[in-house]
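I'll show a record.
***
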Amino acid sequence: MTSRENIKIVATNRRAPHDYHILDTYEAGLVLSGTEVKSLRAGKASLADSYVGFERGEAYVYNMFINPYDKGNRYNHQEKRPRKLLLHKTEINRLLGQVTQKGFTIVPLKLYFKGSRAKLEIGLAKGKKAYDKRQDIKERETARELQRVMKEKGV
């Protein structure tokens, strides 16, 4: 494996950093059908409202939308079916232990191809309160104002 592998981002969850404090990230493989992979290569996927859950000691991503492949005819896939995540058993146990604590969840952050393999970056997250969101907006606005002032001054 080379240090710089070819990475092509298919979809990102732009709401996740706004709604959650991301504490830790993991890279997971996906079990996909052929038409799903072809549709992903065309860039037709969405991570909005998707989440990771556990069933019988295995991790699954739910509500991840992958558009049906145009030329898939009767062999096409369901758009929002549960898809199995490929993680090491120790990672699954660690995540399962964290999720059982109050307020923690696992959210998909980014869907991408690393080489020829589809990968999903998931994050262990804790939900933000309304005042946390307001504070983030305030920090963003002050940073933007500072950048504008520095640009005017020519610094």
